[in-house]
Every structure is written in structure tokens, then in C-alpha cells.
């Protein structure tokens, strides 16, 4: 008997040729605790003087370091990459991740993994847990900054309207909406179902000019671990409603039940 799929979810899945999921939605607690403090201390030792409050309000410690001086940014890149490598050494895939990725592949949908994490660390994690063969594109941090969210669809060779972001945070879904992607919320994160669905407004704080001219007024909005990448776009538009599902296991069933209008990848008989 076919899995029943709600009409609004089915409509989104039918238009989905490519699926975007953040690394934090795949791996359990990838935390880099203490790295921001060590980076602050390093910059202080080098003669940088700025308010700890401004540091705390900055979207991301490493991005702030880059804005102050590029040499600080390179050191921040190395520090966070090493911290992420250590954190992922004990991390495991979240529940239903393997079956979700397998369902995307079986249905002919390409999978993109993105986020503000070191690309080599993400690739190593996927290989270690046998998930690399189920992922078509890894679009994470290869340089001082991760790719912009609006560049993800072109990098995967698809239109934003055929790329659907899967996330359990309102912030990530908001980012996807600003990049004209489709969105599907997953319950189980820190945000409620009604907020994942886009009910009510999501208010964001602009850090502004926190250190003279070092940080521009249009600071790229992001939060480490909750974003698909940078967003260089004015967020002055209302949110669009998004379907929400219970977990990745339920979404995997729906993905298999609703084929894409345009496949994002070809099926191969030898898989």
C-alpha cells in the first residue's frame, strides 16, 4: 500500500530534483567548544583590542577574525578545522540518516551536504560511516568562508526552485527561503513545529559596526552550526509557509512515494 503523503508536502517533493541538508542535520553534536575563546586570546596577544561584547555578538568568531585581518582568518580556519576534526571523530549519524539518503538516491534525487564546516572533515565523516556513496555534492568550507547560500543551486547544476532544503531550525529554513529554495522542516530540533512551518515572523539581529570600519554594516548573517553558508542578501521579505514532517524516516517514505518531475541524477543498475 503506498505511503500517504499530504498534498502540500507532495507538491514540494514533486518539484524536488535536488535535496540540500546541513551537516548538523546528519551528524550528532559537532561542537567546537572553547575554540572561539582561544581565537579571541590569540588576536588579543597580537595587539587587537575590541570589546568582548562585540565579539560575543558577532555572527561567527572566525568570520569576525577575517574581517579584522586576513591573517587572523587563516589561523581561525585552521583552528576550527582541527576542532571539527576532533569533534567528528566520536560523532555518529543521526537517526534515519542512512535510510533518508538512500531514499533520495533510489528516487533519482541528488543530495547536497552543506554548512559552515571544513569540507575535508565532512567528507571524512561520510566515508567513515559509509554514507559518501549516497551524497552527490559536498559544498562546505574550503577557504576562509563557506560558499554563499545563493551559490549552492548553481554549484549543483540545478535551479533554486528544484532544490529543497531539509532542516530542523527556523534559521536554516529562513536562509533557504531567502535563496528562493523550497523548504521542508524536520521536528526534533530546538524550534517548534509552528515556527518551522513559518508561522509568525523570525527576527534577526544585525551586529552592525562592532570595530571601527573592520566589520561592514551588512554583516553576512549566519550562526555556526545552524546555517547552510553565507547569505549576502537583504532579508526584507515575508516568510513562505513550509511543510513539516516528524523525522527523516517519515520523509524518506514520502520521498519514495512521490517521484520527482525531473530527476536530479540517473539510476544505475549496478548500485
Mean pLDDT: 77
Tally of individual helices: 11
Distance between the termini: 25 Å
H/E element sequence = HEHHHHHEHEHEHEHEH
Structural class: alpha/beta
Instruction: Give the full name of the CATH homologous superfamily of the domain at 7-28 and 93-257.
Output: HAD superfamily/HAD-like
Helix content: 25-40%
- What fraction of the residues are assigned to beta strands by DSSP? 5-15%
Structural overview:
- The protein is α/β, with parallel strands linked by helices and 271 residues long.
- The chain has a domain of 187 residues: Rossmann fold, CATH 3.40.50.1000.
- β4, α9 and β5 form a beta-alpha-beta unit.
- α4 packs antiparallel against α5.
- The longest helix is centred in the first third of the chain and has 19 residues.
- The radius of gyration is 19 Å and the shape is elongated.
Question: Which properties best describe this structure?
Answer:
271 residues, alpha/beta, Rossmann fold, six-stranded parallel sheet, 11 helices, 6 strands, 37% helix, 11% strand, HAD-like_sf, HAD_sf, PGP-like_dom2
Q: Helices and strands in order, then pairings?
A:
Layout: H1 7-14, E1 18-22, H2 35-45, H3 52-57, H4 61-68, H5 70-88, H6 97-106, E2 110-118, H7 119-128, E3 137-141, H8 152-156, E4 163-167, H9 170-178, E5 182-186, H10 193-196, E6 244-245, H11 248-257
Parallel strand pairs: 1-2, 1-4, 2-3, 4-5, 5-6
Question: Short description, anyone?
Answer:
The chain has 271 residues and is α/β, with parallel strands linked by helices. The protein is 37% helix and 11% strand.
Amino acid at each position: 500500500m503506498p505511503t500517504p503523503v499530504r498534498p502540500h508536502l507532495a507538491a514540494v517533493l514533486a518539484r524536488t530534483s535536488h535535496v540540500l541538508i546541513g551537516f548538523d542535520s546528519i551528524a550528532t553534536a559537532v561542537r567546537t567548544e572553547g575554540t572561539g575563546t582561544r581565537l579571541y586570546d590569540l588576536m588579543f596577544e597580537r595587539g587587537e583590542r575590541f570589546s568582548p561584547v562585540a565579539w560575543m555578538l558577532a555572527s561567527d568568531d572566525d568570520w569576525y577574525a577575517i574581517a579584522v585581518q586576513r591573517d587572523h582568518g587563516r589561523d581561525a580556519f585552521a583552528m576550527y578545522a582541527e576542532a571539527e576534526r576532533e569533534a567528528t571523530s566520536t560523532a555518529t549519524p543521526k537517526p534515519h540518516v542512512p535510510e533518508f539518503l538512500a531514499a533520495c538516491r533510489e528516487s533519482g534525487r541528488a543530495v547536497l551536504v552543506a554548512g559552515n564546516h571544513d569540507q575535508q572533515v565532512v567528507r571524512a565523516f561520510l566515508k567513515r560511516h559509509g554514507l559518501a556513496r549516497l551524497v552527490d555534492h559536498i559544498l562546505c568550507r574550503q577557504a576562509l568562508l563557506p560558499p554563499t547560500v545563493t551559490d549552492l543551486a548553481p554549484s549543483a547544476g540545478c535551479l533554486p526552485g528544484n532544490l529543497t532544503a531539509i532542516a530542523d531550525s527556523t534559521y536554516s529554513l529562513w536562509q533557504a527561503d531567502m535563496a528562493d529554495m523550497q523548504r521542508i522542516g524536520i521536528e526534533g530540533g530546538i524550534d517548534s513545529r509552528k515556527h518551522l512551518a513559518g508561522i509568525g515572523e523570525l527576527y534577526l539581529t544585525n551586529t552592525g559596526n562592532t570595530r571601527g570600519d573592520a566589520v561592514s554594516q551588512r554583516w553576512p548573517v549566519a550562526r555556526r552550526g545552524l546555517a547552510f553558508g553565507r547569505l549576502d542578501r537583504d532579508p526584507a521579505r515575508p516568510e513562505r509557509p513550509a511543510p513539516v514532517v516528524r523525522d527523516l524516516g517519515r520523509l524518506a517514505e514520502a520521498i519514495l512515494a512521490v517521484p520527482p518531475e525531473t530527476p536530479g541524477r540517473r539510476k544505475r543498475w549496478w548500485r
